[in-house]
Write a structure and sequence with these properties.
With 406 residues, this protein is an alpha/beta fold. The protein has helices at residues 12-19, 45-52, 68-82, 98-109, 128-136, 161-166, 185-198, 221-227, 242-246, 260-273, 279-289, 293-313, 340-351, 384-399, and strands spanning 32-33, 92-95, 119-124, 140-147, 153-154, 167-173, 201-205, 236-241, 254-258, 327-331, 353-354, 356-357, 375-379. Strands 2-9-8-7-6-3-4-5 form an 8-stranded mixed beta sheet, sandwiched between helices. α3 packs parallel to α11 (279-289) and α12 runs parallel beside α14. The longest helix has 21 residues, at 293-313. The radius of gyration is 21 Å and the shape is globular. One of its GO terms (molecular function) is L,L-diaminopimelate aminotransferase activity.
């Protein structure tokens, strides 16, 4: 067996299952889960119609690169959303959801024969696929803390020059999971300057880009690249998905875009990896990328939900409205002494509300303590009434502390 598999850590939801083992939640309260970031809003009917109308495509092998109509749907959306002009033949590829592409991109980019061992860098906290992709590519993960005092901006300047010199791939997530922070143009400039100096590839995970709470939509890495005089997107690949934008997590559909030279190598890898998108899924995807009305409605639902929930929680938790995404990244009260696991377990036991301990989404490092410790992630994916009910229970739970600890 591949010995690198032994280096993988349990996924956060497996750890949560273990944390709750043996706990019987209070039967007075129906279960409410804020633990998993799975969209729960209704899938638009026109997307389902496009999928079912094209089931005949299941009788043919799909092309790994997708057909031109699919790739053009991607570039048309990039033109509408960001005023960017990309070549559908060379600068975009379909992927089976951003998770699959984040993993396989690392296998394409990283040279495991490099000496010293190559580095794959990510924010801390982070989406665990970044870590797994790094480990299974033969690289050493390196975690860079997000700074609460700077709206959870990643402290790139804290990384030693010797680490940058070994870095081959940097994962960024903007809007961030779990913090909801959006990278500024100045942050992108800093990262591009470092990439130019050291030659590493930037993988920009942008799957939450369409759920935002400010008037100005989040800046894409591709958009930043053009604004900063890099129209060729050198060493940059952006990844996005329909899962959150269009409420179709089961469709497993997204695309990557950026540096044509990397796209070419990624296509070669994917041809062998067997990552082609079904023709039926492609048809549904074209329909979804071509419509914005359902996206506006989806965003309005999240805005109303966060407007109802955040003020309830602000008096009892260290939390505020994020820039974007559908998470609240909340600090727990000092009485819990930073024990986010105990907080989550007691909340589940007493009020049957599931939240994810923040420490499960981050790591202790030689240069910083686990930045998720003492925080919880709440995914506001359920209907507004259910999220409000969960918030009200959390308020009651916190107000009963420390007596409520159990």
């Amino acid at each position: 067996m591949n010995p690198l598999l032994s280096r993988l850590q349990p996924y956060p939801f497996e750890r949560l299952k273990q944390l709750f083992a043996g706990v019987t939640p209070n039967p007075e309260f129906p279960a409410i889960s804020l633990g998993i970031g799975e969209p729960k809003h209704a899938t638009p009917g026109f997307i389902k119609d496009a999928l079912s109308a094209n089931l005949g495509a299941l009788a043919a092998y799909p092309a790994t690169a997708g057909d031109l109509s699919l790739r053009t749907a991607f570039t048309d959306w990039l033109k509408t959303r960001y005023s960017l002009a990309l070549d559908p033949a060379t600068q975009v590829l379909p992927v089976n959801g951003s998770r699959e592409a984040l993993f396989s991109l690392a296998q394409t980019v990283v040279d495991p024969t490099a000496s010293p061992q190559p580095v794959v860098m990510s924010p801390n906290p982070f989406y665990q696929i970044y870590e797994g992709a790094a480990l299974l590519s033969g690289a050493m993960p390196y975690y860079v803390a997000s700074v609460p005092a700077r709206n959870f901006a990643v402290a790139w300047d804290s990384v030693p020059e010797a680490v940058w010199a070994r870095t081959q791939l940097v994962f960024v997530c903007s809007p961030g999971n779990p913090t909801g922070a959006v990278m500024s143009l100045d942050e992108w400039k800093r990262l591009f300057d470092l990439s130019d100096r050291h030659g590493f590839v930037i993988a920009a995970d942008e799957c939450y880009s369409e759920i935002y709470f400010r008037d100005e939509p989040p800046l894409s890495g591709l958009e930043a690249s053009v604004k900063l005089g890099r129209p060729d997107f050198r060493n940059l690949i952006a990844l996005t998905s329909l899962s959150k934008r269009s409420n179709v997590p089961g469709l497993r559909s997204g695309f990557v875009a950026g540096d044509a030279a990397i796209i070419k190598k990624f296509l070669l890898y994917r041809t062998y990896h067997g990552s082609a998108m079904s023709g039926a899924v492609a048809a549904a995807s074209i329909a979804a990328w071509g419509d914005e009305s359902h996206v506006v409605d989806n965003r309005a639902q999240y805005r109303a939900k966060f407007a109802a929930v955040t003020p309830l929680l602000e008096p009892v938790l260290d939390v505020r409205l994020p820039d974007a995404s559908f998470y609240l990244w909340a600090g727990i009260p000092e009485v819990w002494a930073g024990d986010d696991e105990a907080f989550a377990r007691a909340l589940y036991a007493q009020y049957n509300v599931t939240v994810l301990p923040g420490s499960y989404l981050a790591r202790d490092t030689a240069h910083s303590a686990n930045p998720g410790r003492g925080r919880i992630r709440m995914a506001l994916v359920a209907e507004t009434a259910e999220c409000v009910e969960a918030a009200e229970r959390i308020v009651r739970f916190v107000q009963s502390s420390p007596q409520g600890r159990g």
